[in-house]
UniProtKB/TrEMBL annotation:
Family: Belongs to the peptidase M1 family.
Domain ERAP1-like C-terminal per the UniProt entry, residue ranges: 109-396
Molecular function per GO: metalloaminopeptidase activity; peptide binding; zinc ion binding
Protein name as it appears in the record: ERAP1_C domain-containing protein
One GO term describing the cellular component: extracellular space
Domain of life: Eukaryota
GO biological process, one term: proteolysis
Matching PANTHER family: AMINOPEPTIDASE, PROTEASE M1 ZINC METALLOPROTEASE
Length: 398
């Protein structure tokens, strides 16, 4: 996307992209990436770049052992639109901390990283965020840009650079169901799931959060479920699967009751056909809404099946019991499973409030045994699935 167009007359004719090595060196020889903030002043746009850190108070630690010949500045290609610029334009920040450009109009809003073509975070003034929220409500932006706005807004709120009301209001725009893609939903729920462990001890807050998500989910979910199977496009099938997953996560009755009924039919006769894209959800609901006999059914099934995909679905179901003793026994039995099964179940358990500490403690106590037993299968990629769900200073110290 950043290459020259139309020779010397293209949108990048005066850009540093003519020396591609110089541009790429700023991205390949420096850790992290930039946060670009844009402000509107009359008919001018003011851009500022800074090094983005997800843990801002770690800056002193990073600075003490990392240097950069570019001073942690990047050559950033910024693609933007305004209320009067519908065809995206480009501006380049060439290792500049700040840059100002002049327009032929006074914009009501500006949206940078249009169509998510750049690797950088975006920040705006409060008034600009409000306008972007209003436009999202009207369906002005496509799925790609709404997903980008949600990602940036939640991330900035997470590090206290933006009031949490902004990403929440952006999330609310999804209830209008303007978008065909599931991506904005996936991004929003991934970010919202980071909030869950932080409020796990506050049952009322957890309940309120679930009710809020159910409210936003209501119209899009009913719209997609009202369509006949043969009418669904590929994108709509993915969206249905995503919305169903969210519905299960927040115990939305329309979906959970439907899936549990399908589970009961399948449990009575395992030749009963299940939708391929909903098998794992149906298994999970079966264990979550069922009893210990349903959990034991899947525990026995894990020892009988040979299919990797089926084993993956079963492992996911085993981690969904609502019984405390059952979960504790499952954690204690992880060493009796093969590495793929153990890691799959442990990662799933870590996403559930109150269980990740038990899983991590088990891994700490049995670290040497696991290294010896699983050898090269016990990879860093697998291990990082568990601390990825940790969020507090206490978790970090562990």
């Amino acid at each position: 996307a950043y290459m020259l167009e139309n020779g010397d007359s293209g949108p990048h004719a005066n850009s540093p992209v003519r020396n591609l090595t110089r541009v790429m060196d700023t991205w390949t020889t420096q850790v992290n990436y930039p946060l670009v903030t844009v402000r509107i002043r009359g008919n001018k746009l003011h851009f500022r770049q800074e090094r983005f850190l997800l843990v801002p108070n770690a800056t002193s630690i990073w600075k003490s052992n990392q240097t950069s010949r570019f001073g942690f500045r990047w050559i950033v290609p910024i693609r933007y639109v305004t209320d009067q610029i519908s065809e995206p334009r480009w501006v380049w920040m060439d290792l500049e901390e700040e840059k100002t450009i002049e327009l032929d109009h006074q914009p009501k809003f500006v949206k940078i990283n249009f169509n998510q073509t750049g690797l950088y975070r975006c920040s705006y003034e409060q008034s600009n965020w409000r306008e972007l929220i209003r436009l999202s409500t009207e369906g002005y932006f496509d799925s790609t840009d709404v997903a980008g706005l949600l990602n940036d807004a939640f991330t900035l709120a997470y590090i206290n650079r933006l009031n949490i009301s902004v990403p929440i209001e952006l999330f609310e725009t999804l209830q209008d169901d303007h978008l065909s893609s599931a991506t904005p939903w996936s991004i929003a729920m991934h970010k919202i799931s980071e909030i869950g462990p932080m409020i796990a001890g506050d049952q009322q807050a957890m309940t309120d959060l679930s009710k809020f998500i159910v409210k936003i989910l209501n119209r899009p979910l009913r719209n997609i479920l009202s369509k006949k199977e043969a009418e669904l496009t590929h994108m709509e099938r993915i969206k249905r699967q995503t919305l169903n997953q969210i519905a299960v996560m927040v115990d939305e009755p329309l979906v959970t009751n439907k899936l549990f009924k399908m589970y009961q039919q399948w449990r009575a006769n395992t030749s009963f056909p299940l939708p391929p894209d909903e098998i794992e959800l149906i298994y999970e609901i079966g264990v979550y809404k069922g009893n210990t006999s349903d959990w034991q059914f899947f525990k026995n099934r894990l020892n009988e099946i040979e299919s990797y995909s089926e084993a993956k679905h079963v492992c996911s179901a085993l981690a969904m019991s609502s019984d405390v003793d059952t979960n504790y026994r499952l954690i204690q039995s992880l060493l009796n499973l093969n590495s793929q099964e153990a890691f799959s179940i442990a990662a799933k358990l870590c996403r559930r409030s109150g269980l990740r500490e038990l899983v991590w403690s088990y891994f700490e106590r049995n670290w040497d045994i696991m290294m010896e037993r699983y050898d090269m299968a016990f990879t860093l990629t697998e291990v990082t699935k568990f601390p990825a769900e940790f969020h507090t200073e206490y978790d970090y110290q562990r």
